[in-house]
Amino acid sequence: MEKDIKDILTKAKEQLSKVQNKLELQQANAKFLGKNGLVLEKMKELKDLPPEKKKSMGQGLNELKQELTALFEDKFNQFEKAAMDEALANEKVDVTIPVKPTLWGGMHPVEKMKQELIEYLVSQGFSLHTGYDIESDYYCFEALNIPKDHPAREMQDTFYIDKETVLRTQTSSMQIRVMETQTPPIRMISMGNVYRIDEIDATHSPMFSQLEILVVDKNVSMADCIGTIEGILKHILGEKTKIRVRPSFFPFTEPSIEVDASCPKCGGKCGGCSMCKDTGFVEMLGAGMVNPKVLENCNVDSKVYRGFAAGFGLERLTMMKYGISDMRDLYENDINLLKQFR
Length: 342
Ligand code: DAH
Hints:
This protein has about 350 residues and is α+β, with helices and mostly antiparallel strands. It folds into two domains: about 1-90, no CATH class; about 110-340, Bira Bifunctional Protein, Domain 2 (BirA Bifunctional Protein, domain 2). Helix content is about 40%, strand content about 20%. It is built from eleven helices and ten strands. Strands 1-5-6-10-9-8-7 form a seven-stranded mixed sheet, with helices on both faces. It has a three-stranded antiparallel sheet with strand order 2-4-3. A hairpin with a 2-residue loop joins β7 and β8 (about 255-260). The chain is elongated and about 120 Å long. It binds 3,4-dihydroxyphenylalanine. The site of 3,4-dihydroxyphenylalanine (DAH) has 11 residues, from β9 and β10.
C-alpha cells in the first residue's frame, strides 16, 4: 500500500503538470480527491488491513490527501492570477477616446446674480446673513413697524402658517434679527427666498428672492444710502447706468425712496423700448433711512445711531441685466436658457 500512495502522488503531479485550464483541473481534482477518487478508494481499503498497519497507512493517506489538496489549490491560484493579469492587460483605459456629448446646463442666472452681489458687497465690508424662510409675524411685520391692523400689510399678501408664523414676505425681517444680536456699526446683507400669494405672470411669482442691505452707524445719511445703491446698480448693470430717486413709503424707513435705473436695453434714450415701456427708466428697488421706531424696537439708541436700508428683487435685477422679459422663464429649468450661463 505504501507503494500505492507514492504512485498516486506521482500520477497526480504528472497530471497536474499537464493541466491547461480550470475545467481540466476540476476533472483531475475529482479523479484524485473526489467522492469516488483514488484517495478515498484507498481509504476504504484500510478496514481490511491488520491493526498494526492500519495506523501507519491511515496516517500516510491523510498526508497524501493534504499534500494533494495543497497542490491543487496552488494550481487553482496560478490560473486565477493568470486570468487577472490577462484582464488587466486587456482592459486598459484609453483616456484619449472622446467623451459622449452630455447636456450640460449652467449656473442659474439668479444664483449667478447672487454670487456676483455677494462678492461685490463683501468686498465693501458687508457680512452675509441668510435667515429663515419660515418667520414669525413679529420679525416679518410687527418689529418693522407694520402692526396687525396696518394697511401696509395688504401690499404683501401672505402665506400664514398659523396666526403668528408666516412664510417671510420680505428679507427685511433679517434687519431685526441682526440688530437684536449685534451692536453697531452694522453692515449686513441678507439674501433668500420670499413668499407672497401672487398669481404667476410675466412679472410676478408666489416665490422670488430678495437682497436686503442694512447699514447702522453714527453718521450715515441718505447720501450714503443713494451712493451705495448707485454703486451696486453700476456694478451689476454697467458703469454707464444712471439712477433716478423718487419719494415713496415703507413703514420701516423714514424718509423712504424708490430707485429706478436707466434702462439697460436702450440706455435711457428711449424711442420704443419694450423693457422700460418708453420711459427710459425701470423701477429697481425700495430703500430709505431706517425708521427710529425700528431701531428702538431692537434696542439701538436712535439718538446716537442712524441707519439706511434697501431691498432688491433679485429676479428683477437678473431680468434687467440679461434682457429676460418673462419671469416664468427663470423657473422652467429650460436647458436652452441655462446653458447660456455657463
Ligand atoms: N421689503 C420691501 C419689499 O419687499 C423692500 C424694501 C423697501 C426693503 C425699503 C428695505 C427698504 O430695506 O428700506 O417690498
